Each structure stands twice: as C-alpha cells, then as structure tokens.
Amino acid sequence: MTPLDTALERLPLVAILRGITPEEAVPVGEALMRAGFSLIEVPLNSPQPFDSIRRLATAFGEAAVIGAGTVLSSQQVTEVNAAGGRLIVMPHADLAVIRAAKAAGLWCVPGIATPTEAFAALAAGADALKLFPAELLTPPVLKAMRAVLPREVRVLPVGGITPMRMKEFVVAGAAGFGLGSALYMPGMDAAVVGDRARAFVEAWRALG
What we know:
Elements: H1 3-10, E1 13-16, H2 22-35, E2 39-43, H3 49-60, E3 65-69, H4 74-82, E4 87-89, H5 95-103, E5 107-109, E6 111-112, H6 115-124, E7 129-131, H7 139-146, E8 155-157, H8 166-172, E9 177-179, H9 190-207
Parallel strand pairs: 1-2, 1-9, 2-3, 3-4, 4-5, 6-7, 7-8
Helix pairs in contact: 2-3, 2-9, 7-8
C-alpha cells in the first residue's frame, strides 16, 4: 500500500487550497492536519504555488501527501516534483500529463467527466479519478460510471461539495472528495479553516 492509499484509507478528503499564499500555507496546513486531513493540494493558479508546495512538504514531510492541482502540462509536473510535491491533480484527462506524472514517480488523479476519459486515464496510469465538475456530474451519473469501472478504482467527486452533499455521492459510489471553497477561500483565517475541516471530518465519519 502506497502512502497515497494509506492517506485515502484514513480520511479520503483532499483539501484544495486555491488562492493560498506561501505565508498562509503552513498555518492553514497545520489546522487541516489537526482536524485529521493528510491530503493537501495547492492549485497552480494560486500565488507562488511552488513556494507554497515547498513549504508544506518541508513542514509535514511523510505525515502528509502534498501536491498540486490544476496541473496542465508536463513541465508543471517537473516543477511540482522539484518543489517536493508528490501528488498531481488535474481538471482534465490529458494522457501526456498523466504519463509524465507516473514517469516522475508521482501519484496522479486526473479529472474525468465520461467513461471514455475514465478508462483512458486508468490505462495511462491514473491512481484514482476526480469526477469533475460534480455540480454537473450528479450522483446518478457517478452510479452509472461505477457500474462499469473496476471495483478497486477510487472516484472522488470535486465541485460544490459540502458536508451535507457527501452522503448522496457516497451512496452512488464515491470513495472520497476534493473540497474547495466550502473548506477554504483566499484569505480565510486558519482557525476558520480548521473549524470547517472538522465539520467535513464529522460528516464523513457519520457516513461510516
């Protein structure tokens, strides 16, 4: 079992810190870790994202899986790797980016919206699948995909997920979630992020 598998087994919730600054990264990361999170993603359209990834990776080491979101190119994969990130999350299913991530020894969770994209991403080496955007791809869509996807493949809906919305997706076959603005928004105090993180953790554990 890889560290990614271990983290997903423990708590399959990925914190998406879109818009975070390097100065905010570690305090927010600490609040998330205290709440039980160990999967943290810094989207590359955030300010100085590689600096934030480097700071988080240095601060938490093997205790967390730190990575990047909104990864759009193989060059960005190289830069994430150099910054100490170990996870590549994408909004799409660009096979070249998936293969670059796997060639670099990183874990990759590409975004998919159709079975065609899902199977192509898995064939390229994807470690899990991001169902995106979940506002559009509803639980019935996920249920239909789960009927044909391999049982062991984890599918994590992303987009508009709140503590109250998780149950319907889990019933449809979700194995976890990526959490964006309902968890973190730019400039949010670390204590507030911690409170929101605990609410998500409580909601997830209540489903068990």
